[in-house]
Prior knowledge:
Distance between the termini: 24 Å
Oligomer: single chain
Structural class: alpha+beta
Helix content: 10-25%
Strand content: 25-35%
Amino acid sequence: MDAPASSLQIANRPIEWSVRDGLLPYPDAVAFMEARAAAIAEGTASEMVWLVEHPPIYTAGTSAHEKDLIDARFPVFQTGRGGQFTYHGPGQRVGYVMLNLHHNGGDVRGFVHDLEEWLIRSLASFNVKGERRAGRVGIWVVRPDGGEDKIAAIGVRVRRWVTYHGVSLNVDPDLSHFGGIVPCGIREHGVTSLASLGLPVTMADVDVAMRTAFAEVFGATA
């Protein structure tokens, strides 16, 4: 079930903010997003940020390569978002963002940059320095030995200038589950999580950080 929804205001327009409890089947999430995005485009529903968790799954974006699916130990879903293979599962916060890009002049690249900034600022709440890397989608952290691991992923789709899909942030997932794929097609680097970095924060802590950061980045006032 969903926790009670609340609202943000961005440039005097309401954004519904909803956190779903439990593990949401991926097909249900996609069906909901497609319907909500269509309603937003028609002007019959408000824009929305939806925070969820999924059971263990792999999803393949529009640029996914079959060779990057190493071990299909979990269900694999083809999806219309950009990007390659990624993993979703318990302990990972997925943020689905359904916004009307007409409000930002139709700037898709700007929207993706804002999603990155949202994740960076969310991580900063826990004194984690998340960084962009040219040629590598997502948000990265530098290990003490100088290596780099991915801590958050981004994959979006836009239909009729309304966004859906969004971001995922590794809070405390089973990182071994990423071993069934080459995450985002990048073989040279690993994945990490807040827990793996020694930060035993709760999902509720992360949700608060994400809401605060979203307000900062997208210009919302509570």
